[in-house]
Amino acid sequence: MDRFRASAPAAGDDWIALSSEDLPVAEVAAWVVRPHCGAVVTFTGTARDHSRGREGVHRLDYEAYEEHAVVRMEAVLNDLRVRWPVVGRVALLHRTGVLAVSDAAVVVAVSAPHRGEAFAAARFGIDEVKRSVPIWKREAWADGESWGVDPQARTEVRP
């Protein structure tokens, strides 16, 4: 697997990527579809124009410790597959670099035979990526710039 692949893998059912380019949201949603899976859940997190106490956010800048981020993303994906062994394909993609408001910052997509597993696995995927992957956000707004309002300690993927 190309660890930093910004386009769909030619083989396999797992797609992990960190990319400084626009995330291919439509390609991800199409790629996760499998004949034996009747459910696809795609979550896209976009850059918004505010955060707590900060109106007028106009730019985000994401930085990642790539070597560790990819390892953590792989751990999330592996744990997701252990918890929901029926899932078909899984995609975990995150942007790095400068994003404008409304740009896609993260995409998590999961296919599964039924919606319950697809929703649960996708929710787990985004929650664990946000909780455990070393990616940091710097916000720029009308009155200044700063790293995220609520810095979070990154921890191992939950057992």
Give the topology, please.
Blueprint: E1 14-19, H1 25-31, E2 39-46, E3 50-51, E4 54-55, E5 59-64, H2 66-83, E6 90-95, E7 97-100, E8 104-112, H3 115-132, E9 135-141, E10 144-147
Parallel strand pairs: 1-6
Antiparallel strand pairs: 2-8, 3-4, 5-7, 5-9, 6-8, 9-10
Largest sheet: 4 strands, mixed
The proportion of residues forming helix, as a percent range, comes to: 25-40%
Rg from C-alpha positions? 16 Å
Beta-strand percent range: 25-35%
Total number of beta strands? 10
What is the second-level CATH architecture? Alpha-Beta Complex
One letter per element, helices H and strands E, the order comes to EHEEEEHEEEHEE
Mean pLDDT: 88
Global structural class: alpha+beta
Q: Overall 3D geometry?
A: elongated
**Could you give the order of strands across the largest sheet?**
1-6-8-2
CATH class: Alpha Beta
Indicate how many domains the architecture comprises. Answer: 1
Say what the CATH topology is: Aldehyde Oxidoreductase, domain 3
Structure overview:
There is one protein chain. The protein is α+β, with helices and mostly antiparallel strands and 159 residues long. It has a single domain (14-143), classed as Alpha-Beta Complex (Aldehyde Oxidoreductase, domain 3). The chain has 3 helices and 10 strands, in the order βαββββαβββαββ. The chain has helices at residues 25-31, 66-83, 115-132; strands spanning 14-19, 39-46, 50-51, 54-55, 59-64, 90-95, 97-100, 104-112, 135-141, 144-147. A 4-stranded mixed β-sheet has the order 1-6-8-2, sandwiched between helices. A hairpin with a 2-residue loop joins β9 and β10. The chain is elongated and about 50 Å long. The mean pLDDT is 88.
